[in-house]
């Protein structure tokens, strides 16, 4: 809620205590005395400014690079205000929310409101009494909902999620492709049953993964939308293997999922989190590929091939979102290389898969190491793919080893 404040006070140095965020009233509400500032629970101190219509373009041009114009309320009875046209010509203010105040409120919505991204047409009477506070708060809330997304696009279909959706959706496997009634247990080795159990338990780790993606990407829409699809696909991995195990008389206990219900810490950077998941998906894909190649039981061979393909698709999608962040952004390239180095540089302690790292109380931590040790070469193949991705993220084809990652990091820092 926004609270109206008295004029700003001065601090000990004599400077006015005011935030960088502003709301402008342009050529509207001439008979209403505006407060000099408001306090927003979301944005802190927000300065309120009255600007003449013929001075608005100059006002925008003089706006501080560190400042934020949260909302503009412009006066007009029936036509698009020139100030709104001016505002929308300047990409710097794409997220500034625009409102028109005039007699057109409550009537048919004119087409120019969509053309110029106008939130609403408001009656001057709506600003009487507490209406001023309510309307300013409405504008600040609308602005606040957009500023979290560093990759904001004006149009929804331009988001990266929508660009990869068709490819991702059309490559999904169908449950009808799996015939669990055809399982032949006699073709399974004891080691393969062990791997199956480990894998079913390991996949429970995607539950907190999905929770944490939505926590870490709060306020963003594109990657968060894809994270919902990713979580739904990953949930099938534990389910299909648990159902397979059930067919051969092996029951998977619920405690393994509950062990991993605890969220792990939010990452320091989005890029670092994405690269960690690239590594996780690449290694899981190679492990499933190796398991499928060596088993003689046709049903689990089919399942493991499908899961390997899934994890490879996930790895590719995480790369697309990482690439979006790293292009032309040195800080994100550094974050990507740092995370790559952490997971690729040292295997001396057997730490090979992020899914086992965050849950030392879960049996899958040690089991993942045992499973990967039994599939010689899987982690090497996965890490070669990861190294190729790091080369693309850093735009440096000379990165071949972890020593090269260190060299590149020094040159960027």
Protein described:
The chain has 413 residues and is of the alpha/beta class. It folds into two domains: 2-147, Response regulator (Rossmann fold, 3-Layer(aba) Sandwich); 156-412, Ribonucleotide Reductase, subunit A (Orthogonal Bundle), CATH 1.10.620.20. The chain has 16 helices and seven strands. Helix 3 links the parallel strand 6 (97-101) and strand 7 (118-122). The longest helix is centred in the C-terminal third of the chain and has 29 residues, at 298-326. It is elongated.
Which tags fit this structure?
single chain; 413 residues; alpha/beta; Rossmann fold; Ribonucleotide Reductase, subunit A; 2 domains; seven-stranded mixed β-sheet; 16 helices; 7 strands; elongated; disordered N terminus
Set out the fold topology.
Layout lengths: L1 E3 L16 E6 L10 E4 L3 E8 L4 H6 L6 E8 L6 H7 L8 E5 L10 H4 L2 E5 L8 H17 L12 H11 L19 H13 L3 H11 L5 H26 L7 H5 L10 H25 L3 H29 L3 H15 L9 H4 L6 H10 L4 H17 L7 H11 L1
Parallel strand pairs: 2-4, 2-5, 5-6, 6-7
Antiparallel strand pairs: 1-3, 3-4
Helix pairs in contact: 5-8, 6-8, 6-14, 7-8, 8-11, 10-11, 10-12, 10-15, 11-15, 12-15, 12-16
